[in-house]
Amino acid sequence: MLKIENLHARVAGKEILKGLSLEAKPGEVHAIMGPNGAGKSTLGNVIAGRAGYEVTQGSVTFDGNDLLAMEPEARAAAGVFLAFQYPVEIPGVNNTYFLRAALNAQRKARGETELDSMQFLKLVRERVKEMGMTPELLNRAVNEGFSGGEKKRNEVFQMAVLEPRLAILDETDSGLDIDALKQVAEGVNRLRSPERSSLVITHYQRLLDYIVPDFVHVLADGRIVESGDATLAKELEAHGYAWVRDRTPREAHA
Amino acid sequence: MQAAAVPGLPGSGLAWLDDARDQALRAFVERGLPDTRNELWKYTALRALQQRAYAPRDHEAASRGVADDLLRLDGCDGPRAVFVNGVFRGDLSRLDELAGSITLQPLSHALQHRPEPLRFLLGARADEDEDGFTLLNRALAADGLVVRVADGARVSQPLHIVHVGTNAGSAVAWHLRDLIELGEGASFAVIEHHVGDDTSGHLANLVRTITLRAHARLDWTIVQRASEDATLLRHTDCVLHDNAELDFHALELGGKLSRHELRVDLAGDRARFASRGAFVLDGRQHCDTEVLVTHRGRDTVSDSLWRGVASDRARGVVHGRILVQPGADGSDGSFYNKNLLLSPTAEIDTRPALEIYADEVKANHGATVGQLDDNVLFYLRSRGIPLDTARRMLVRAFCAVTLDGIRPAPLRGFCETLLAEQLPEAEA
Predict the structure, then answer these.
(1) pTM of the full predicted structure?
(2) B389/A101 touch (CB, cutoff 8 Å), yes or no
């Protein structure tokens, strides 16, 4: 589904990703862990297509298509979703209106029929219930005046409505209290299916207690330096990131 | 520009009116059109306009066919006054639906049948600082509306005034003069609508005097969709007496060159003025909004909020001035203007200005010119919304705050639709 090969990327002239390779197959949940500055968020942004990230080498394909050649909106229509680390506030744009525009734009791009307002409302009401969202948030402007937790929950709520095939969660757990964390995790778990996969980018192991990954990768200095199953996250928690650096022979970085 | 001969206008032969028109014409010849040395015309150059020739009237304006669709506006199905190429059209208007507490006459009719009540306003000499267009209007205005709302009348249905520009073989210049007065405690709403289906490049020069007696309230909404070659110049003088309220909205979308000089004199104590307006410009459109508020009475309030958007090579001008006169203690004035440039060749000049000569005054102003936030655009695109749609969505959101309070509700909805449609399809 997602295949990243030897990815090198620069931000403002500085090389952040230095030969990252990763493959996610349908149904898999991959956790990307690593210290600050390792390139975790850069990875998410490069996949989603944010401007300002220059890919100098390597490839990213999605279902065999060159993702890097696609506009961000085309990536979304193909099924890629990035839950932002810092969701933006959009004053004057109503949350429901925005989501319907997004869903219908994606459906249109895929050649599917657009949902009318009744159909959309029905879908949204179901998701609101499942996510434990405050329904009032739907009538507010996108993220405007939302608390940190509300913003993150809104990201996962959007994900639940848009039903992406590849969800990238960029530190969605940061700044969340334990109840919010559980709700976010439930939202992600509800989307788990044999057709969908996720990249869960996180600094802490805590979220992975609730979203149990199939694979854990440790990202350090722009490369994946260690991969394993869910137990790797526990070891990291116990030993810290220095443990990975010490354990990894230099040549493994290539 | 050629001035038409004064004889032959409605009311010609009335000595006081002939005098006033002659005097205005002489003053115009002396002063000419305003140039950019005039502070209020600083960013609106008229060189291109001066090269053009205009016919002094459209002789067939009284009989030209106008599609009803052009005249219609969502939410405005009540009384309507229609002008086509500067001529009042009783056949297209719907004035029998007006409430009995309102008297309305076309100026042409009033000057022929009952001119005396107009003498005070139309017979007055021009001020020293009047610009060339208001002088021309004094000299040449052949029509307009004379409206009076009786004391205490509370009229719920808005009056829809439609100015239509339609093809006339050549470009025509017309000059209209409105006199609108609300009696004590009266409340009334006007929706001024400019539309056109012409390619003639007409010039409309409108001058209005609006008087709100004590405790009167007026809602005035402008929907400006003049045709793309049109020139539209408007000068509005409002006087508000004690406790009077003027609530003003404007959506400026059309025309090649449009300008509105809105002067509001808060003469009475506790008079209140609020304005909300937006312009969205494209191509080589030029739109100039001058909001000049004078606080004269005590405890008067003015509050203005404007949004401007310009793409391509368009140019917007916003000038908001708050003048607080000596003795206008307790005044509270604010003027805020935010603008968006959607292309590197677009330009918006915004100047908020305060002049304060009284004590215990609150006055605030602010103006910004910026661009769409790339982070926000990316957020929308990352959810599947194409760039064009994302830009339109953000521009609409940017301007929507100025539409709040537009009544009736369907008109507000229609204005939002107009905003969304106004933006160009694609832009790099």
Answers:
(1) 0.89
(2) yes
